[in-house]
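Worked Example 4.2. Consider the chain below.
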Amino acid sequence: MMDQDVFNTDRPLLFSIAYRMLGSASDAEDVLQDAWVRYRGVDRSTIRSPKAFMTTMITRLCLDRLKSAQKTREEYIGPWLPEPVLTSELENPEVMLERSESVTLAFLVLLEQLSPEERAVFLLKDVFEYEHAEIAEMLGTTTDNSRQLLHRAKSRLARGRPRLTGTAQSRRAIAERFARAFSSGDAFELTALLTTDVGMWSDGGGKATAARVPLIGRERVLNFLVGLHRTAENAGLLQDASLTIEDVNSEPALILRLAGHLESIFVLSIDEDAISGIRVVRNPDKLAHIERQLTTLH
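Applying the procedure from the previous section yields the following structure tokens:
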């Protein structure tokens, strides 16, 4: 049986590495399960540190998955967004505070610019604070190459790297205002809440209705939100709709249900006191994991 310290105590760390590497909670769970099966077949006397061994195995399994996933993501219908997760479920709160920016949907999308190896080195060094010597051993490379990969990754990410502003409480207050305005179709209030260059990305994956291209600019996003409310009102759906707010990927998110069914998740990126990005996940495959989390939570 797998060492309890590795699978139970260190599981949040192992999962959070795999999730950031893959952008998918379900894939991260699969990787952990695969690593467990492989670990059970290894002679324990040859393992100096079970935690380091598992981290290495999970990193390498994630690299394999990323390489095979690249073609699939290139053929994805519409914008690709990561699979959302409840932040509180990802890792210990005291650890999460230090790494919260690295799990936002915007940041995980940004990581797609990197090669699998660059992504691994950047996350292990910049987020999880491993030394280059440790990373080199995990990846089967040299410390010099690890440093070069980190330098390239940081150069690519320098411009677009998102930053969380305000506090969790101030961000939630903006989300609550947005939820009220969205629920009532209040165009005036929505306008006040959106930055001029706000962007909106919708991920339906060809399995749910969603905009195939990003919407950029306050007017376009506003028209879409007001039009969405008007369509729902005309179809008589509002009485069956419910909106709640949860912490998803370290940002406030609106959980939209119709007749109790999880329909969409609107994750809000907030810059000071206004919304600069809205990422809507509608692909049912990507909602399954968080639906299980929400069911457990409530």
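The beta strands are 194-203, 215-216, 241-248, 251-258, 261-271, 274-281. The longest helix spans residues 50-74. Compare this with Example 4.1 before moving on.
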